[in-house]
Amino acid sequence: MRRYAITNRTLFPQESSLPHPPQSYRERWDPQQSTQLNALLRQTALWATEGIDYIQLREKDLPAAALASLTRSILEILHNTPTRLLINSRPDVAIATAAHGVHLTAAPGQLTPAQVRKLYADATLPPPIISISCHTLAEVAAARNNADLILFSPIFHKSVAGELINPGQGLEALRAACLAAAPTPIYALGGVTLENAPACLEAGAAGVAGIHLFHTP
């Protein structure tokens, strides 16, 4: 099963009692830096050790300089591992840091995969890996053969404090998306758990994606 982890540093506690990172990347750990950012570095190292296929760096509130610094630290951690780092919606940061790729949304006004690939080529960087978020079959059709992989969501319902806030589209919608996207792989996103992940694969997904799914408390 292919796995695509999405970051969210706010899931980590802000207290300074978190353990120090492993020696393998301790030189990149800054005790003066945000505890949550240090925890995120530790998490990315764990993901690489576990063989996670893709990490999407989704820290949208960080200024460009801070995001670039964090990206470089993660790329050092991922060096000589098969885990690839994609930057959410910031091709400029991805190119400046030579990240492995970019994640795009299907929202109007964003750069297209073709435009991102041209920017990488102009910067004499290897071709980027491009993932894109899709929520409808029309968006899947538009992304097909343009992106390297598609995150289709939401699959399962989401509840907060017992209140349903997102009903999810279900496995049949995922199955239809996988057929519409072929041969571009679909990763199931939204309410995916270890228990329901096999059903996503049976519906045709190449893998699963998530935030809470892969974060270690």
UniProtKB/TrEMBL annotation:
What metabolic or biological pathway is this protein involved in? Cofactor biosynthesis; thiamine diphosphate biosynthesis
- Tell me the superkingdom of the source: Bacteria
Domain Thiamine phosphate synthase/TenI residues, every copy = 38-212
Q: Which UniProt keywords apply?
A: Thiamine biosynthesis
A cellular component term, taken from the record's GO annotations: cytoplasm
- One GO molecular-function entry: thiamine-phosphate diphosphorylase activity
The GO annotation for biological process reads: thiamine biosynthetic process
Extract the coiled-coil ranges from the record: none
The protein here is known as Thiamine phosphate synthase
